[in-house]
Amino acid sequence: MSIKNLSKAASALALVGVVAPFLVQSVGAAEPSSALSGVDGVTDPSGSEIIDSAAVSQADGTGKITGKSYAGIGFESGDLILYQVPNFDFSLNNKISDSAYPMMKAGASRMAVIVDNRYTQTSEKNTAGTGYSWQLSGMAGDFTSSNSHTLNANEAQLFINKHDSGDSLINYTKPINHNTVDNTGNQYTPGTLTSSPDGLSLEKNVNISGTEFKQIASAIDSKLPGATGLDFSNTKSAQVVITAGGIAKIVAGDDYVSTITWNLTANPLH
Fold first, then answer.
1. What percent of the chain has pLDDT over 70?
2. What is residue 77's predicted lDDT score, i.e. its pLDDT?
3. Sign of the dihedral defined by the CA atoms of residues 195, 200, 206, 209, in that order
4. Which residue from 59, 133, 174, 257 could staple onto 191, CB 3.0 to 4.6 Å apart?
5. Residue 164 confidence (pLDDT)
6. Residue 66 sits in the same domain as residue 99
7. Are 146 and 25 members of one domain?
């Protein structure tokens, strides 16, 4: 399918992000070891316990026999995962001007989701573990139309969280996971929007157009295991600014598309 057909169904200034999960791993998975080996009462961790007892008559005429078996599980520190990233649709119907263009509608599942399973806490209340850090950055390429017309990074600029004062246009959410063991690859959806937890920072006025990655969000010594959602449902959480040089080059009726590359880093990883 051509870029033109894609964007006619989506938008003129549409930005395409990779949605497939990406894992940041340091070593391969070890061979599994038994969680029941050495447990009192367990004779065969991967088999069965022999009960071999007859039911005993009860006063009411029924019979009963009880027996015990065991279930065991253990955990190791997991992976840092870039699970999903948002697309930004700015519509095909913008009047040419020098204003900032917001997205055409609020997006219920327009989120970046980072899943951090590296935690090694020693307290079940998650207050005494090792905190880990990560940084999320983005880089947007030139806006190019299906007719090979181009607006470069000096002519069309993609801004993330563009504001000078007030609340962030990107919101933190603890996202809802719709995956199961047998049903994977589903998008997370936003949970309740809350204030950013300690250690999570959201940058503002970030122009990600160009050839360098620009930091969008970071977590420093975070004590929140699991998924972090960066909610871009606000139509102004991403905006396109066309400069004077870009206005002079716009071809009316063209559909311009930029590809965003997202980068999740951690140092140290473990």
1. 84
2. 81
3. negative
4. 174
5. 83
6. no
7. yes
Residue pair 139/260 in contact by the 8 Å Cβ criterion: yes
**Considering the domain boundaries, does residue 270 fall inside one?**
no
**Residue 16: enclosing H or E segment and its boundaries?**
strand 14-16
Clarify whether residues 168 and 43 are in a common domain: no
Paired strand residues for 171: 231
Beta carbons of 81 and 22 less than 8 angstroms apart: yes
Task: Report how many helices (DSSP H) and strands (DSSP E) the chain contains, helices first.
Answer: 2, 19
The full 3-state SS of 215-227, as one line of letters, equals EEEEEEEECCCEE
Task: Examine the pLDDT at 14 and tell me if it is beyond 80.
Answer: no
Give pLDDT, residue 31: 77
Alpha helices in 114-270 (DSSP H): 244-247
216: nearest Cα among 103, 108, 82: 82
Strand partners of residue 207: 159
Domain containing residue 105? 3-30+77-265
Indicate if 145 and 257 belong to the same structural domain: yes
**Residue pair 155/170 in contact by the 8 Å Cβ criterion:** no
